[in-house]
Amino acid sequence: MASEAEKTFHRFAAFGDTASSGSEMNNKNFSKLCKDCNIMDGKTVTSNSVDIVFSKVKAKNARTITFQQFQEAMKELGQMRFKGKNPDEALAEIFKLMEGKEPATTGVTKPTTAGAVDRLTDTSKYTGTHKERFDQTGKGKGIEGREDKADSSGYVSGYKGTGTYDKKSSK
Fold first, then answer.
1. Under 8 Å CB-to-CB from 171, ≥6 apart: which residues?
2. Are 57 and 73 in contact (CB under 8 A)?
3. Are 134 and 145 a contacting pair, CB within 8 Å?
4. b/e string for 129-148 if b means 16 or more Cβ within 10 A?
5. C-beta neighbour count of 155 within 10 angstroms
6. pLDDT of the chain along its 171 residues, tens only?
7. What one-character-per-residue DSSP string does the chain give?
8. CB of 122 closer than 8 Å to CB of 58
9. What's the Rg (C-alpha) of the chain?
């Protein structure tokens, strides 16, 4: 029974911290274990009582607890949760709640699929100057799509009489 609890302890101790070896657990992961394994019931065992028990069992200036300290904490929480049972029975009940549990990742944002990439690279939806950079098939025009070609005809841009000078002067 304790070996299963120890496996659960190590899984939760290493959760969320890539540098953790899984041999010591911090308060955040201890609270998560109590919540995910339904040790915290909201009436007799609350998040405040879990924090108080964690502070009691840890060393004075430490931030983490070992598995031995974890067992002490579970004994205390077991007596709170299962009143009327002796400490060993309560501890066994707590360990039964912990069996085979893993840290839950509900509500975690999942990465989007390629749909977003497809939507962002669909050239038919481009507007403004970006639209000018692609032809009808969606293939890029290269440098012609990026630069305005300079009109080197000698006329001011937008002049309507382009090419009429030679006709007038030859008469």
1. none
2. yes
3. yes
4. eeeeeeeeeeeeeeeeeeee
5. 14
6. 568 888 888 888 888 887 788 889 999 999 998 888 888 888 889 999 999 999 999 999 999 999 999 999 999 998 888 888 888 888 888 888 888 787 777 666 666 566 677 777 777 777 777 777 777 777 777 777 666 666 666 677 777 777 777 766 665
7. -HHHHHHHHHHHHHTT-TT--SSSEEHHHHHHHHHHTT---SSSS-HHHHHHHHHHHS-TT-SEE-HHHHHHHHHHHHHHHSTTS-HHHHHHHHHHHHTT-----TTPPPPP-THHHHHHT-GGG--HHHHTTB-TTS-B-THHHHSPPP--SSSPTT-TTTT-HHHHHT-
8. no
9. 35
Residue tagged 């890539």 (tokens): 18
Which residue, 89, 92, 45, 54, is CA-closest to 73?
A: 54
Q: In the numeric block, which tokens belong to residue 150?
A: 């300079």
- Residue type at 49? S
- Residue 87 CA to residue 75 CA, distance in Å, equals 6
